[in-house]
Each structure stands twice: as structure tokens, then as C-alpha cells.
Amino acid sequence: MGRVPCCDKMGVKKGPWTPEEDIMLVSYVQQHGPGNWRALPTKTGLRRCSKSCRLRWTNYLRPGIKRGNFTDQEEKMIIQLQALLGNKWAAIASYLPERTDNDIKNYWNTHLKKKMKRLDQCHGSNDLFSLENGLTHLSSSNSSTSRGQWERTLQADINMAKKALHNALSLENPTSSHNNNIKQENTQVSSTSTIYASSTENIARLLQGWIGSSTSSTNNSESSKTSSNNIATTDSSSCDGTPNAETKGGMGLMEAFESLFGLESFESSSSDELSQTTTPEAIKIEIKKEENEHDVEVPLSIILENWLLDENTLNIQPKNDLTTLISFDETPQLF
DNA sequence: AAATAAGCCAACCGCGAAACA
DNA sequence: CTGTTTCGCGGTTGGCTTATT
Asked: CA A14 – C1' C13 distance (Å)?
């Protein structure tokens, strides 16, 4: 299978993205929708490889991305899900729709890995670690047990995992920031203009940072790193839906940017994108169903909790079956 | 104040799966 | 059915920032 690497071409730019490039990329996605990345560089004139464009979109420009510090709730979910799924960052990210897989992966590697190690040394066992231990036990006990035994063990481990996750999710009260985030996410699902605004906000923040950094005489390196740093350092206050571009920059960059690109044409594509790449089907259905029936927002934690705690899902919904999360391929020696 | 180390994160790379011809 | 192309994922790296000596 001889595949020509897409980035081997001469003249393909690498490194940090400039605001101009971001705008070109968003403009293209606005018109054509996400996908067909191969054609993007030639159609837009961007001197970037298709991969780079896709990555930039999915990890940075895509609507609905939350940046800044991870909440306790998010942290717990990542730990739980990592224990359940392993390093399936895309799968884990699907349960944290506002976070990208890259973000979660980075956060895991830089924070949680160490934290887990530290806690593992200090604590004998708590809920999180009983889950981990359970799953470790699950994988380590595989080779020496029969399938029937293994299935019983699996069931016990599933129950243990459920209990641990339930406990972890119960730690936060219903008015936690996480729920607020979910509320925001749900709003986005139901309001496509908000989705666009969110993407606009990303660019506006980026432009704001770019302007800010280019006027700064002290740090020349900023201009080359522009977007990354300015948005990476955005604290949680900027993630509450309030564009900080206007509060800081005087002129409404949001408005300026929105005037560059119409709202309507982006709506279908971005909502499609969001539905394609965010929450798992089951959760989307739940959210939609709840919204239609009661017009109320259902916290993701509740949905996830219900999904995990509902005994019936193990029998009725093989697609969402927890057993499918623990890949049977990982234990081929059993069968 | 300067040098060095550690932390952090955006972006790159290679591989495998899915889609397509 | 087979070969090719495209896409998505996870691991890794490069370079910037911050902390420490």
C-alpha cells in the first residue's frame, strides 16, 4: 500500500498557524463543511497539508471547544474513562464534548498520570483506584481463566466500575460548573447560531491575542506563537460563553469577524460536524429526547450515569454495552 | 541577572481503518 | 476482489513559558 505522505510536498508550511490561515480555514469549512480535507489546501490556497488543516480544525477552531483548566468533574471522568477505555482519547473525548482528544491526552500525560502515580502511592484504595484495580485485575486474570469464569469476573468488574463511577459522579452537586458546561453544550446543540458564534469566538479570541501580542514590544516570540498561547492561557472565565475579545479589546472583534462571514451558511455544516464528532449516539438521543419531551437540559453526568447504571443496557444495547468498551481483542488468548 | 531544568501544549508523524475506484 | 486514497487516531516532538538554582 504505497501511500504518498501528504506532507512531503515542497512548499508545505509547518509550525504554528497564523490568524490569517485560521480565517481561511474557517471560511472554507463555513462554505463546504468539515471534510474533504484533501481538497482544502488547493481550494483555499493554504500552504498546509490536509492533515494539518483537519487537525487545526478539530483541535482548535471547531465550535464548542472549551479551553482552560479542567474541572474536578472533568478530571474524574477522564480518570474513570481512561481506566475503562485505556488510551482511547477520541472515545474519551466523546464523553467530554467540549474537550478535544488532544487536550485530554495532553492533560492526562502532563497532570493526571503523575497525580495517579502520586495518589497510588499514598492511598490504599478509593473509588477511583478500586475501579483501576478492578480493571487491572480484569486484564491480568484473563489468561488463566476459562471463558465462563472470565465472564463472571467481567460482570463483577462491570459492577465495580459502575459503582465507582456512580460514586465519582455523585461527588459533585447538581449546580456544579460541569453541569453549567453541559447546559452550554446542550444549548449549542439546539442553537446552530450559537455554534457559529462559538467558532467565531475562537477566532476572535485568537485575533485579539494576535493584536495584543503584535503591539507588545517585549515578547517577539509571541507573534510566532500567537494563537496557541493566547488561547491556551485563557482561564475558565473566558469559557462561560462571554467573549473576552470585546471586554478586553474595545472594538467588537466578534462583530467584525461575524461581518466577514455570514451566519446562516455555516449553520448546517457546523451542526453536522458537531453531531458527528461529539457525543455518542446514545447520549445525543437521550439529550434530544429529553429536550423534546420536557424542554429541559439533562446533565451529561446524569445521562452517563444512567447509561452505566442501567442494568438493561447491558442486555438491550450491545452498541453501548460496557463489555464492548473493554475490547475482546485485547484478550484473544481466551477464545 | 543569567543559566538551566521542568512543565506544558500545539503540531507533526506514522499507522491502520474505512471509503472509494 | 484488489489496489489506492483519504481520514482519524494515538504517540511523540519541538519550542515556548515558568520555576528553580
From this structure: 13
